[in-house]
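Thread: adenosine-5'-triphosphate complex, take 2
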Amino acid sequence: MSRPILEARGVTKQFGGFTALDGVELAIGPGERVGLIGPNGSGKSTFVNCLTGALTPEKGAIHFLNEDVTALPAWQRARRGLVRSFQIPRPFKKLSVIENVQVPLRFALSEPPPTGIDRRAMDILDSIGLDAKANWAPKDLSQVELRKLELGRALAANPRLLIADEAMAGLSDSEVDEIVALLERLNGEGIAVILIEHIMRAVMRFSQRIVVLVAGRKIADGDPAEVMRHEDVERAYLGQ
Ligand SMILES: Nc1ncnc2c1ncn2[C@@H]1O[C@H](COP(=O)(O)OP(=O)(O)OP(=O)(O)O)[C@@H](O)[C@H]1O
Ligand SMILES: [Mg+2]
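Output below.
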């Protein structure tokens, strides 16, 4: 791997007496496509929260673009290009589709884009296929369109690393394919992507590498086919 853009070292997170993450290590190279999987409650979202700054780990460090960001708040990490989308889309309900992208554009960028906020917002809607619905209200969007808007809002921060936490749950097969294709396109523009997903067909199609969390520990990290043959992974998925 060329020099990683993200390095998580020994990340440990406790909730009361419960250890949700136990010394998790992860390195992500520039432009990499990594699938992060694990059973429900294995710590995937908690790990993302630690990476992006919503939670502070008890132990460990997060380095992003050669800087220790462990103590930085989420918005400062986002400004550096470490960006996530949420498991449950959270659009501003009273704003239109394009305004939903303009708000994070104004907020996330330390300086306005050279083409201006409005142009950049339209470009983002274009790239997620929602340009024709720029003036719609989020409530009139379909489930897959809401997922795309959620990714569009993440794109507003101009990510170097995009973490998509279950961007496909509840979608039909063809809608899952649409989101995978969208993530592939964004990756093609040089954005590294961590895909957190239970839909294995999507994970296998998308990922160059798969990382497996079980009960807060990383139990596998490597080539997708090899990782899926790993007996601990099989056991975790088939249920002991
Ligand atoms: N804020 C919190 N307070 C207490 N416990 C929490 C908190 N957030 C998560 N947990 C617990 O930590 C564990 C890991 O949860 P997490 O949401 O990270 O799992 P996950 O791998 O994302 O699961 P899923 O696949 O269902 O989204 C779970 O046991 C969960 O109940
Ligand atoms: Mg989760």
